[in-house]
Amino acid sequence: MNRSQFFLCITLIALVEVVVFALALSMGYDAFAELSFYIALLLVFVCRQRVKGVIWDERLSRVEEQVAEKTLKIALFLMIFFGLGFFVSGALLQLERPMNDGLFLLELAGGIILLYLVLWIIAIKPFWDEGDDE
């Protein structure tokens, strides 16, 4: 897969995910929406692995890593903050919908953390045997 095919693949995955995610949430299938999000992230990862050639040079790669890390931290903080807020306020006011929304956000945040760790382990695995600790 070359660079233009990669960007086309990413665009198509994003468009399909937006439609599936919105439809699943509007129909009340929160678990399916969450699952579709994880599947889309895995498809992006698979597309990235199939690229032949150089997509970014080393400088852009470092910047991309920093931006991705900061974005992940901010997104997780917001999901956990709002998830806890919805859950606690829903529990105090005895409202079911805010509690469900809060649990959904907390599950989504947990799934993203788990997926991040799995992908990080897969990415770092080739370098585990390099270097000996003395």
Throw out a few tags for this protein:
4 helices, 134 residues, mainly alpha, single chain, transmembrane, DUF2178 domain-containing protein
List the helices and strands and how they pair.
Layout: H1 3-27, H2 30-49, H3 58-93, H4 96-124
InterPro entries: DUF2178_TM
Protein name: DUF2178 domain-containing protein
Organism: Methanofollis formosanus
Short description:
The chain is mainly α and 134 residues long. The chain has 4 helices and no strands.
| Residues in helix, % | over 70%
Output the number of helix runs.
4
Rough shape?
Answer: globular
The end-to-end span amounts to 42 Å
Provide the structure class: mainly alpha
Low-confidence stretches: none
Query: Tell me about the biggest sheet?
Result: none
| Strand coverage percent | under 5%
Radius of gyration: 18 Å
Mean pLDDT, to the nearest integer, reads 79
What's the total number of strands?
0
N-to-C order of helices and strands: HHHH
